[in-house]
Design a protein that fits this description.
Blueprint lengths: L15 H17 L6 E5 L2 E6 L9 E4 L12 H14 L15 H13 L2 E5 L2 H13 L10 E5 L4 H4 L2 H5 L4 E4 L4 H10 L3 E6 L10 H11 L2 E5 L14 H5 L7 E6 L9 E5 L4 H10 L11 H14 L2 H20 L11 E5 L5 H10 L2 E2 L1 E3 L10 E5 L6 H13 L15
Parallel strand pairs: 3-12, 5-6, 5-7, 7-8, 8-9
Antiparallel strand pairs: 1-2, 2-3, 4-10, 9-10, 11-14, 13-14
Helix pairs in contact: 2-11, 3-11, 7-8, 12-14
């Protein structure tokens, strides 16, 4: 690779040479071993490869344990029919114009439905990353908040969709990175700065939840603004699927901003920005100056219709049934395989492996009929590679047990048997 000379001081917030130089090696290994670039058809919850790899060929059937549709709503008949119905009602797929200029009522219908579901004002976006790209610079400039440019604290483990905005936000205000969920770091900053904003995942993509209640104490004490991406817990957690943050935070006002994707457990497409306590004038600023939030990249009509159908399912007892099936599969997995995430309702488990064994382990699991994602730097810190397992409501007990048996064969630690008290 040709050495590139920096024109301006570089690597304050990212380092692509390191990111790609190290990460590409693992991605290439994944692809060579048939663990990336897979093309497969879905039939009854089981996938069949249509473009096979040399070691396994086409037609290999496997169960996907690396899918974020935790409640399997993406294939729910009502969700699919909802998309078709909306297309028929509105007679257009994608009315391509900025929403601040002209819009058909479709997305407003979805925002109203989701607003009732969450008990807040909702602005929809084509993706959570698009919402983040629009919102974080407005927080940095003080236009979303109390008018004061805050110190922006990004959690070290914040998803790349948030971390990528560091240099953009740094053009508006001071930006720092904190250790993962380090409450002392955040409080120290709150004591030194008139305004602080903390950017983190409400539910981490590698397992676990943010310390929402402890952060709420800092919000009450110092006026801390917290920006959560709670995408992995939407639908999978809470009454009517409102997610972990809105189920636990006592501070649901202008000091708490929650962004969620609708692509995961919600089972459809797009994203929702959930806002409490913001004025109509502030909402107009978001709409007009939130970048791609306003461009002609809105949710298409089919996605809106699917979202409306999913929202209706969230208002019924069926959602609780699906959540309980998911939790039962999570508990079953925890009883068989030891992970740091055990005991949580969170649907992701990271089975530790070494950098040198994670690809081979993933390959052996795939050959046995299951797909789990090998994760490595820069997805996780160097030296902390593992197999990421995602549990879903639609997986059967037989499938979960069979996967756990294969994981044990490739080096996963078996969970300790439950004692008499815990088993009751």
């Amino acid at each position: 690779m040709t050495e590139r000379k920096a024109i301006t001081p570089a690597h304050r917030y990212r380092n692509n040479d390191k990111l790609i130089g190290i990460g590409n090696e693992f991605w290439d290994m994944s692809e060579r071993n048939g663990l990336a670039g897979i093309v497969a058809d879905l039939d009854g919850g089981v996938l069949r490869t249509t473009e096979g790899h040399e070691f396994i060929g086409e037609g290999h059937e496997f169960v996907n344990f690396s899918c974020c549709s935790y409640l399997d709503l993406d294939s729910h008949p009502k969700v699919i029919e909802g998309g078709i119905d909306a297309m028929r009602r509105y007679g257009v797929l994608d009315h391509c114009i900025a929403r601040s200029r002209v819009q058909i009522p479709a997305m407003l219908e979805l925002e109203t439905s989701l607003g009732e579901l969450f008990g807040a004002h909702v602005v929809c976006s084509i993706a959570a990353s698009t919402a983040t790209f629009g919102l974080l610079p407005l927080i940095a400039s003080g236009h979303l908040g109390n008018g004061t440019r805050p110190l922006m604290i990004f959690d070290k483990n914040a998803h790349v969709s948030m971390a990528n905005l560091k240099p953009v936000c740094a053009d508006e205000t001071e930006v720092v990175t904190s250790p993962h969920h380090d409450l002392d770091f955040i409080e120290d900053a709150c004591k030194k700065y008139a305004r602080v904003a903390y950017v983190c995942d409400g539910s981490d993509s590698l397992g676990g939840y943010a310390p929402v209640k402890e952060l709420a104490e800092l919000q009450d004490k110092y006026g801390l603004l917290v920006y959560y991406d709670d995408s992995h817990s939407l639908s999978a957690y809470g009454e009517r699927g409102i997610g972990y943050v809105r189920s636990h935070s006592p501070v649901l006002d202008e000091r708490t901003i929650v962004v969620v994707t609708l692509n995961k457990a919600f089972g459809t497409s797009g994203a929702a920005i959930v806002l409490d306590g913001y004025s109509k004038e502030t909402l107009r600023v978001i709409e007009r100056f939130g970048g791609a939030l306003n461009y002609s990249q809105l949710l298409n009509t089919a996605a809106v219709g699917a979202g409306l159908a999913s929202a209706e399912i969230h208002r019924t007892a069926e959602l609780t049934t699906l959540q309980n099936r998911l939790y039962a599969n999570i508990a079953l997995f925890d009883s068989l395989v030891e992970t740091e995430q055990a005991g949580s309702t969170y649907p992701i488990r990271l089975v530790p492996m070494s950098d040198s064994t994670v690809i081979e382990a993933g390959r052996r699991v795939f050959e046995a009929g299951f797909y789990v994602s090998p994760v490595f730097f820069p997805i996780v810190a160097r030296g902390t590679a593992g197999l990421r397992v995602m549990l879903r409501a639609g997986q059967t007990e037989e499938q979960v047990r069979a996967l756990c048996a294969v994981l044990a064969e490739v080096g996963a630690r078996q969970a300790a048997p439950l004692g008499p008290e815990a088993a009751r």
